[in-house]
Structures
1.
Amino acid sequence: MAADPSTLAPLDLTRIRQDFPILSRQIRGRPLAYLDNGASAQRPRAVIEAESDYYQQHHANVHRGVHTLSQEATDLFEGAREKIRRFLNAASPREIVFVRGTTEAINLVAQSWGRPRLVPGDEIVITWLEHHANIVPWQQLCEQTGAALKVVPIDQRGVVDFDAYLAMLGPRTRMVAIAHVSNALGTVLPVEQFIAAARERGITTLVDGAQAVPHQRVDMQSIGCDFYAFSGHKLYGPTGIGVLYGREAELSAMPPWQGGGDMILTVSFERTTYNALPYKFEAGTPNIAGAIGLGAAVDYVEGIGLERIARHEADLLAYATERLGAIPGLLIIGTAPEKASLVSFVVEGIHPHDLGTILDAEGIAIRTGHHCAMPVMDFFGVPATARASFAFYNTRAEIDALVASLGHAREMLG
Ligand code: PMP
């Protein structure tokens, strides 16, 4: 049950910020205001130390050795898998596949689930606000199988049209693949509703959770999807590690994606038999340190509490929306009623890249560009936006600094 937000203790930001060494850096002589968390968040010392401790004390290859270090490494690696299982409320560690990140997870599903079974005329449904990582693998699958891609429209606020979605689900729909949270607009999709409608019709479902897991509790049992993907580096963990959650019945029925060591039981030149889940999908030596670091990140976030994180970030979003919205000539792109803590915007007469450069000179890191969501940019008729995306360690003072710096940019270029 969700905690009543009003009873939650506020975050001790001074203490929390001390956990993140990089946050005390100066950039061009100014204190860093890191507002690019949607692209990649920063790491707390607990994550850096977990990786470093692993390398200094426990490193060996996993799963194959009888010697002590190999067993320690295996225990740490599998311990991380169990932490992630608990974090997602998955039924079993067999449902947790370590991958490089969201991108690899979606490609794995497209190729292993989709390629052997889709035929010409089958349909894959995505939405207009997807990241390229949840578009291109499906386009490639369509080219390979003759299936067709259907795109659910969004409205001017960046809300996905649920009625249009329902109308798009038909007898040939085989897969629904949707974002949980849009990285370009911040829109939070009511994924439970979307997934339930697909499941009632026997359609397989995937949720791209890259922008959701850092901001809210996600529960595989209540979402009910078949697949859920996320990246470690947006969840305060290492780069190069991510997770594909897959319902056991689905993963069991899928062929391996890549072949090699670790994913086999027996190999002869006549025949190879495959390992049990999840190892069937983890060919080769995995990113052991990355998985351990991700386990530490999950512990860290759980230690603070996702409900407290969500409440602080909701405050930052409301404050930023109000302050940025009051700047003349600034237009916020993405005004859905349910949003995660990011604000995309354009400023009249100033190219987003110029804004980004001027802000950087004042120590403020934001992202500018198409955010790997070019169809969203096309929809709103802009080539790019500036995007400030907040983490739980961000403060109202950093938003004040952003607003002040935008004022300087307008004086210089507006
Ligand atoms: N989906 C969404 C919604 C994202 O925001 C991102 C990262 N920007 C991705 C997928 C891809 O994640 P990664 O690059 O870590 O694989």
Note: Residues 5-43+306-413 form a domain with the Aspartate Aminotransferase, domain 1 fold (CATH 3.90.1150.10).
2.
Amino acid sequence: MAQLPSKTKSDSESATKTSPEDVPPKKCLDDFISALPTREGWARPLIQYKKYWFNPVMLKHILLAEQAFVPRADDIILAAQPKSGTTWLKALVFAIANRARYSFSDHPLLTRHAQDVVPYIEIPGAGTGHSDIESSLPSPRILATHIPLSLLPPHTTTCGCRIVYLCRDPKDVLVSRLHFENSFTKASNISMDNAFSMFCEGFSPYGPLWDHCREYWEASLVRPNHIIFLKYEEIKADPVQVVRKLATFLGIPLTQEEESSGVAQEVARLCSFEMLTSLQVSKVGVTHHVGNEVYVRSSSFYRKGKVGDWANHMSQEMGEKLDAIVEEKLKGSGLVF
Ligand code: PAP
């Protein structure tokens, strides 16, 4: 049972909340970012901005989004700490929101990468990202983000839009992160021990993980009609039930007729790890272009898709240590993993 948070939303947000005045003009962004603390260790150096660590290219786009992104009351925003199952969530929400539009046998998700059907607020390219293209998307938009709640563009949490936040056991996030980092280039060879130490310090892309989760968790308790907090493990345990829950949260609950014809089961099957990884579009090519700055192999978004794979990569003792750190950091919030 969730306890009420010890801090109110306004307390936790005001601690780090950014505002457009804090962000330098576009032409000065590179200088601004290069003056921030930098640390190496992951495949690319990370920059610290207001307690969170970012890839410098991403940080620039987050700051640009801060100035340019205009949220709409009917937006659906999918938020997650990276490697928590964003790809899965994108597929699920896209399929739920468009279920009247597409047949399951001839569905866009069968030919388009799940990452590409929902644009990121902070990642331009592939038709996305705080650009003219994004602002011209028809309502209701489905958008994704890894941006911490306290750094979201102004009014995103208060404009009335719905936010779906997805978190995952931090141990599995770490293992997924390590494999993802080591897949960037052949030269990337970060050890589990190093990744573990960095992660335990809160030093990881969009980390500390616990602050990221805690901000959305606390906001979801304050505004449950606008922010829903999900766990990867919960979707794994009963994807069909989560499809129903998401449809209801989004204001488009499944009808009796849809229940009878098995729509929730069809959505869960279409978005399953087995289905998505069987598709050609998940096996070849690249996705996520930010100019030429960032690209990722399409296949890198799928690895094992399991709960508890951490135990194959770190010792029991390491698992317990990370659990204890996370528990301590989340103390008083009511959020537990
Ligand atoms: P991102 O942060 O780069 O967007 P994200 O999709 O959040 O990645 O996380 C990737 C993880 O979700 C991978 O976990 P793993 O490394 O432990 O295997 C990936 O396998 C998993 N994943 C992607 N799609 C699905 C799915 N349909 N069902 C279950 N897990 C999935």
Note: Residues 97 and 252 are 8 Å apart (CA to CA).
3.
Amino acid sequence: MSLPKINPTKTEAWKRLSSHFGKTKDVLMQDQFVADLNRADELRIVWNDFYVDYSKNRISKETLSLLSELAAEVGLKDAIDAQFSGERINETEDRAVGHTELRNFKAMKPEVSETLQKIQSFTQKVISGDWKGHTGKAITHIVNIGIGGSDLGPDMVCDALAYYKNHLDVRFVSNVDGDHVMESLKGLDRESTLFIIVSKTFTTQETLTNAQTIRKWFLEKANEDAIAKHFVAVSTNLDAVSSFGIASENIFPMWNWVGGRFSLWSAVGLSIACAVGYDNFESLLKGAHEMDLHFKEIPFESNIPVTLALISVWYNNFYKAESECVVPYSQYLSKLVAYLQQGIMESNGKGVDRNGDTIDYETGTIVWGSTGTNAQHAFFQLIHQGTKLIPTDFIAFKKSLYGQEDHQNKLLANCVAQTEALMQGTYGSEVENNFKVFSGNRPTNTILINRLTPKSLGSLIAMYEHKLFVQGIVWNIFSYDQWGVELGKKLAKGTLNAIESQDLKDVKNSSTRNLISRIK
Ligand code: F6P
């Protein structure tokens, strides 16, 4: 079964939403809260240790029910079933989309459980010190070499779960910037460092260049036999990994039915399992699986990813909001936004629909943000008083991990105060002058979670994965391909040749030619 291919703007629900928008677009949330004193009790979802408050949005129950009709009309239920049943819904690459299968312990493919066992026994050896480097030293440092999905997820999770980390120092090298590579190698003892090369395709220029440079650096003080004790790889491309010189027992497989940006649940997460131990890695997967079940089974009106996705569509397509901000009130989640940017924008930044036709409505939102309270002292001015509508997700944890109550109360007080200020503004109060007016009526979701644990983090990440999928279905696009990154990669081969040879005859564009001639 392939995905439905329905232009959302041609549906009955869209027509009704347009007319509803015309009638309600100027309704103020401030008035809605006064008119319905139970609004916050009605527009929220309580699930596991998540409390999702979406009452501070420019919506009514009618908006939500029309959005639900839209979801039904574009075939969302069938699309969800198609994904979970392993259909090849990534049609342009002719692949299934199976990241949820990586965390479904009850119905796991044998190759997935074998790989998890391999991750478990490998990480135990590394963490316990049983895995020795070529001179007999235990491993103390790990360097993950990868980019995009082979970097952002593991890097983000390792930081997010820093509280649960063991003694291993885990670093990430991604950019082909040689200065970054050399800075990352600074202070490393070759004899106690393990390098994990992660590349689904094992053809990515950045990763292969970095891996070669690091291999050369390593071999300055060791011979080829030592590679087996210090280099492992994660890839689908087993031949290319072997040609790099990595022994077959040091290769962790992955599969083309797992998209790069959804792959942290696979052996791509090996660095996570090393950093926090296999049990915590498994809890992360289990937390994601619980969100999968919620997403798959719960009716749309109380389904967290579906609700957040539809509200986002409402702003994107009717209010024409161009971007969305994500602000976690936890410094542990400082890399979440960068991770979500790949997940969301590589997935839904598409201008051609599932029929292959050019789209004449808005698709993928721009995602940006930073941690609170830092963001309050940086860009919140624009969200409060700027001319743009920027729906914002506030993510917070009820309990801190170290129990610093004074800090935690202040952190959460700020989080709540901001959503209140954005919603209420100075509406209804006397203000000295126009510069001090806050219009309010600025939308937010608050995702309040009990505690930052591997399990709750897994659920949170899966929540955003499913949200972006729902949006892709509504927008009638293929969320799981990424053709938009290919042209730049191809052209970079030509520009590299031109830079190295300074032969500019094939460089047609005058700007490009001038730039290249000034390099070197
Ligand atoms: O930049 C595109 C992309 O293909 C991403 O989707 C992917 O996560 C990244 O490159 C890395 O690819 P690989 O894991 O094959 O090196």
Note: The mean pLDDT is 97.
